[in-house]
Give the backbone structure.
Amino acid sequence: QIHMIKFGDLNWGDSLGQGTFTRIFKGYKTDFRDGEKHMTEVILKELDSAYKNCWESLFEAASLMSQISHKHLLHVYGVSVHGSQNIMVQEFVKYGALDLYLKRGTSVSVSWKLSIAKQLACALNFLEEQNIVHGNICAKNLLLAREGDPSLGSSPFIKLSDPGISVVMMGNDVILDRIPWVAPEVLDAPDNLTLECDKWSFGATVWEIFNDGNSPLRGWNLDQKRNFYENMHQLPPSQWTELADLIAQCMDYDAAFRPSCRSIIRQLNSLITSDYVILHATEPVTQ
Ligand code: ATP
Ligand code: MG
């Protein structure tokens, strides 16, 4: 039931990098509507040929995204198969991945970051209502469709990207490398992703956003990352107490204690958004 796109209707442009078992290209998709030729900007996510066996998993991610529709979820047009090439065709999002955007050093206000956290919570709430687990929430998978005015705080707009290859298909090392975004219980049972796993990832992602896209635990090797979870450590708390508290609730090692989306949204809405007060309060967050 997923839309199959003719390989000949795809035009390939610049490479935008690599993902987990994938290569990402900018491109165009050709359509004929009303007897006219239309070119749509797209992203072509091609499965690395070394991981051919993951095609079903990537196909499932594409199918999931094309079946649900929400303003903060990325649109997937369909898939294309050509010989040994397997490709997911999705919406091109102008400002790209949020982690890169933040790391570029654009100065953004606290209310700008807060509005992104709220939009992500809104997308998660939608998924929770549909009982759909995403499984790969992180700032890299938040795509920035509109900048707003980052310094004045006028609203940005994000879209949550597809989850990609399922953790079930990954080796242990790839999963360990996803610490601290992957929920701790996934290490023991990658085939048992739950809505609670997404809550943990949400907490890690909010931490990442408020630390200007710096990956928590960046540069740590897999043993150090494994130890971090084995010793039940927490990320360094934000100086903004209410935010630190929300992140800690989401990143609770006991999945049963993580908050509902309803509660997450309520807490985000209750955060005071005066940039002056909050900027002052969060100054020493980065370690
Ligand atoms: P994963 O499943 O681990 O997320 P992936 O295949 O989705 O892997 P990413 O690492 O998420 O690959 O994406 C690679 C880069 O491609 C991103 O950093 C971003 O710059 C760019 N990119 C991905 N999707 C889009 C999109 N829809 N619009 C614009 N840029 C995108
Ligand atoms: Mg991605």
Remarks:
- The first helix runs from residue 55 to 67.
- The chain has a mean pLDDT of 93.
- The first strand starts at residue 10 and ends at 18.
- The pocket of magnesium ion (ligand 2) is lined by residues 19, 140-141, 161, 164 (CB under 6 Å).
